[in-house]
Amino acid sequence: MTNTGATPYEQLGGDDAVRRLVDAFYDHMDQDPEYALIRDLHPPTLAGSREKLYLFLSGWLGGPPLYIQRHGHPRLRARHLPFSIGARERDQWLACMTRALDDVGVEGELRALLDGQFMKVADFMRNREEHASPEARASWLSRLLTRR
Ligand code: HEM
Fold first, then answer.
1. pTM, full prediction
2. Which end of the chain is more exposed for a tag (fewer CB within 10 A), N or C?
3. Quick check: 90 and 41 in contact, CB under 8 A?
4. What are the pocket residues of ligand 1 if the criterion is a CB atom closer than 6 Å to any ligand atom?
């Protein structure tokens, strides 16, 4: 996939591709015990979570602003405050998204862009005080800085 001036939404493949990405994301979260920490924060049935992330990503990627049309401003950080989110939760969320992006076959410039943007939003969602080791902090920073 090369950058042709199209929105990330169009480059990804539009509505169907956003659905596939979200389904793959939640399938990994639901099926792999490695992500139990964040799976347990979610409701027993993930249908509602899938729908909300799909609506949100549609607009966030530059497509139709479906989430805003139905629910108003996302206030994403405020909506995550009821859940305790630290570095481990952030990294599990990003791991599910990395695997979903692999499944959908997102590569090249679009992949680099999305990896970087997801890292920023996920990090912004942290709401728990933590005392990360200097090694853990350095490793996160170097991951972030090698993205855009
Ligand atoms: C950093 C780790 C994250 C954790 C542990 C987490 C966890 C959760 C949980 C437990 C919910 C509630 C699910 C439900 O009501 O069905 C939720 C909702 C949501 N999350 Fe996350 N999330 C994270 C990051 C993100 C990121 C990076 C995004 C966007 C790129 C995002 C987008 C959303 C959206 C759009 C909703 C629905 C909000 C609503 O309308 O209530 N989340 N998240």
1. 0.93
2. C
3. no
4. 38, 41-43, 48-49, 52-53, 56, 71, 74, 76, 79-80, 83, 85, 89-90, 93, 121-122, 125
